[in-house]
Write a structure and sequence with these properties.
This protein is α/β, with parallel strands linked by helices and about 260 residues long. It has ten helices and seven strands. The longest helix has 15 residues, at about 35-50.
Length: about 260
């Protein structure tokens, strides 16, 4: 029996957080003009993924939201061809408008994905990289597996999948509690699937990928940004070198498994 104080248990395989409840562009504006901790967190996680993408590669960002990652990618790697896709139509409209104004003529497109099918409207082997940044925790594992199967289909034979998700074997659960107390974000409603490093790697393997690199970022660095962005950056680099999986965000890179 589930008591009223227990966290929600998502037993329906179609479970997914309804992102239409979030104002269009909310997370993008947090990256641009939120608190210093928010800005550091969002920009550095996107830059961490951007560092793994090479000029000339074609990128699909699955669950692109308002286009925040593709904004950073377009700044750091101008000319990279990219497509952002998401189930939230309002976020896609925001991203399209922002890119028309900020990056006119950039080789970046945005498309809406159907939640019913999760089928990507692209040919087999058409992308070098598929990214999914803090998305899979928001959907039931059944839907996440469908999404990653589609990612596998559209990746080229030597293509790469890059996925990030919160690390529930870290300080992240405590951070969630603090954020829920002092912000409108309710992670216990949004985060349907929760991963530890081991569970994350196994899930990617179940979905047909071989993990080639798995690390974590963010222990204390983002929380130093209000004191000194330079100090936060220094600690961030040190944490990546010696963090030993303690960071609050998992960053996994994988290639297709050949069955």
């Amino acid at each position: 029996m589930i008591g009223p104080a227990m966290l929600p248990i998502h037993t329906v395989r179609a479970s997914a957080f309804n992102y239409d409840e979030i104002p269009a562009g909310y997370y993008h504006q947090a990256m641009l003009s939120g608190g210093k901790t928010q800005r550091f967190w969002h920009r550095e996680k996107f830059k961490e993924v951007t560092r793994r993408i090479q000029p000339g590669e074609r990128v699909l960002d699955f669950g692109c939201g308002p286009g925040s990652f593709l904004h950073i990618l377009s700044e750091e790697k101008p000319g990279v061809q990219a497509v952002g896709i998401d189930i939230a139509g309002g976020q896609i409209e925001y991203a399209q408008k922002f890119f028309r104004e900020k990056f006119p003529g950039a080789p970046v497109q945005f498309r809406t994905l159907s939640l019913e099918s999760f089928e990507l409207p692209f040919e087999d082997a058409s992308f070098d990289v598929v990214t999914s940044i803090e998305v899979i925790e928001h959907i039931h594992p059944f839907l996440a597996a469908k999404a990653l199967a589609e990612a596998r289909r559209v990746l080229k034979p030597n293509g790469r999948l890059i996925v990030t998700t919160p690390n529930y074997r870290s300080l992240w659960p405590l951070i969630e509690l603090v954020l829920e107390r002092f912000s409108p974000v309710k992670y216990h409603e949004q985060h349907i699937s929760k991963f530890t490093p081991n569970a994350f790697a196994k899930f990617l393997e179940i979905c047909g990928f071989q993990v080639t690199r798995l690390n974590t970022i963010f222990i204390f660095a983002p929380f130093l940004a209000p004191l000194s962005p330079a100090l936060a950056g220094l600690v961030f680099r040190a944490e990546k070198a010696i963090g030993r999986g303690m960071g609050s965000l998992l960053v996994g890179e994988a290639r297709k498994l050949e069955w």
